[in-house]
Design brief:
By secondary structure, the protein is α/β, with parallel strands linked by helices. It folds into three domains: about 10-110, 2-Layer Sandwich (Nucleotidyltransferase, domain 5); about 130-240, Helix Hairpins (Orthogonal Bundle); about 245-344, Serum Albumin, Chain A, Domain 1, CATH 1.10.246. Helix content is about 65%, strand content about 10%. The chain has helices at about 35-45, 50-65, 75-85, 95-100, 105-110, 110-125, 130-160, 160-165, 170-180, 195-200, 210-245, 245-255, 255-265, 270-275, 280-285, 285-295, 310-315, 320-344, and strands at about 10-15, 15-20, 25-30, 70-75, 90. A five-stranded mixed beta sheet has the order 3-2-1-4-5, sandwiched between helices. Strand 4 (about 70-75), helix 3 (about 75-85) and strand 5 form a beta-alpha-beta unit. Helix 7 runs antiparallel to helix 11 (about 210-245).
Length: about 350
Amino acid sequence: MFIKETNKYYLLEAPMGLAIFNNNRLFSMRKYSSVDNAFKNITGIKNLNFSDEIRLFFVEYKKAVKDYDFLIVNDKDLKEYLEREINIRAEVDISAIKKIKNEFFSVFTPSLSLYNQYVVLLSKKLYSNNELINLSNIYETLDTTINTRCMRIREWYAMHFPELSSFISSNNEFLNFLIKINKIDGGDSLTDNQKINELILNTVGSKEFTNDDINKIVNDAREILSTIEYKSRIKNLLNKKTKEILPNTYDLLEDSNLIIKFLKKTNGSLNELSLMPSSTLQILGAEKSYNKNISNKDNKPPKHGFIYSTSYVQNCNNKGRISRMLANKISICLKIDVSILFDG
């Protein structure tokens, strides 16, 4: 009985091109012409949306090998796509692909500076959405810092004028009033608010502050107000960047908060987020409730996660239905935005 000898070919995906090896020898290769070309082709392969040159590369491979030969790749989705669309027999073997990665420099022979340039520029293109997460982290840190400092200054000033803190709940207004009613000379002065004037005259505060105490409190209040203004600028920048990267999704939600929450669940991967079904987007953020439902069917499954915070869901009666409709629209917008981002 004649036994066919099966050859295995190994696909190397690199920042500067594609190469196929057989028996540790280069079988075929295709270099990317530029960083933009590399970005287009890398994202195309990742999204299973091959450009003409990449499709031609695999078609030529198909013509050059036997029908029973295997192409070893490192991704299951890519394997299934090659088998379905180009009729290439493929297998997934990540460890084998890792071994041939050492052949990269011998094949593409780039200078180290050119290689680093490709890696850096591609990283900026492929992971620019991490900027949104970093800005969001700065915003959240500032928010926590402001709230903590406001709580401390309220406690501090309450020893002298406790009524002000209970009368004004907004931190911003509280700080502005605190500065307004305290002169640098240390005395309380009347304001244009009659209620606060009455509180000043009839305060039950037991501690008299010195001029130095008042100066420190007022200066601290001004610093906090400056931080609040900076936080506002960060928020505006975050919204602006989000709209640049995901314009349709941002226009739908009119805020970056929900988008950032989604991104953090995918570790900043726009591609992974865009590939999520709308049913997953709908309950993203409600994993605990979902897991409880899986372990015990008596628990009702969640109808919404992060999406509950939007005004669309908040201002309606049938929240489950609206959550589902909104998740569908978000899914469509994400797919359009990511497609434009990767192809453009």
